């Protein structure tokens, strides 16, 4: 199977006065795994449904494999689909379920059997052909749904929260399976999820959606390290935010005042907010919990945020410390310290210094939506 490129060209969708998708443009190369990630109501499903052809756009074009399919019906777009609860036909066996799209396409019976057994091998259920859906676990049924979506070798696969109904452990193993399968098939995959961890682990690129628009498009590492807006920073991974005053920029470093005697410096090149930076303006400083350190009060150093331990909890691979700052609005900062080596449990009220690594800090305007 060879994937097809998908070009979403300035697509809009309005329902009455509400705009669900607002001028979305996405150029997806053949064979890419692209996730559409966003909160509930951000327009993910609407966008996917338009690619599938179940809804038509209010404006814009959709080009698949170089062909304008904007006005083409879903069954003629040659797209495989898997949804959160893609009900299998209960009265058909697993093999008959998977053969269904082939039958619809008028493929001969002997060829059908061969392709069904290949699809079952691919999703690692070779011995289940004669069973019925109710005899399979949720994860196995979802694998059958995947087999049914790929059996006719579509160059484009659409998946809408396909693992949403599964428990965490099964989700994680299915994530790897789907990713490996996609790499073997070479299909272009457009994958809708509201689970940022899932998007980070599976995707070549992620399109973060907010209010019907693409807030940011990039590789997982790019989006995680260099979020362009506070919304994206907040949505991807855990993030602490502190409000401060922009003091200015010298020698590639920006100074932010967080409280009396509390000033931190961020490197201008990566920290953002170099666009409309004004001295004296309010800014939001974003700090990843895993890029923060903890030291006894007064140990010295730079970029120090004094506070007191509110709580310390063991979280498996790391210890999570909640520190109430001694400045500003006395907000709580989350600090993640790897749980290797010796760990001193901190007692509530212990005065500490949170040490903020410069490279891990990002700066945003306080006024963005
Ligand atoms: N058929 C419809 N008629 C009217 N409004 C709709 C319709 N379908 C979606 N909407 C609205 O469009 C917006 C986007 O919905 P959509 O289902 O695409 O979001 P989503 O990001 O997929 O959300 P979720 O993660 O909850 O599924 C929502 O505000 C929703 O209420």
Structural account:
By secondary structure, the chain is an alpha+beta fold. It is elongated, with a radius of gyration of 25 Å. It folds into two domains: 6-233, P-loop containing nucleotide triphosphate hydrolases (Rossmann fold); 239-365, OB fold (Dihydrolipoamide Acetyltransferase, E2P). The protein starts with 5 loop residues before the first strand and ends with a strand. The relative contact order is 0.12. 24% of the residues lie in helices and 36% in strands. Residues 15, 18, 20, 38, 40-46, 194 line the site of adenosine-5'-triphosphate (ATP).
Question: Secondary-structure map with pairings?
Answer:
Layout: E1 6-15, E2 18-28, E3 33-37, H1 44-52, E4 59-64, E5 67-68, E6 79-83, H2 94-104, H3 109-122, H4 138-150, E7 156-160, H5 168-185, E8 188-193, H6 196-202, E9 205-210, E10 213-218, H7 220-225, H8 230-235, E11 240-250, E12 253-259, E13 262-267, H9 268-271, E14 282-287, E15 292-296, E16 304-314, E17 318-325, E18 332-338, E19 351-356, E20 361-365
Parallel strand pairs: 3-8, 3-9, 6-7, 7-8
Antiparallel strand pairs: 1-2, 1-4, 4-5, 9-10, 11-12, 11-14, 12-13, 14-20, 15-19, 16-17, 16-19, 17-18
Helix pairs in contact: 2-3, 2-4, 3-4
This protein binds adenosine-5'-triphosphate.
Residues 15, 18, 20, 38, 40-46, 194 line the site of adenosine-5'-triphosphate.
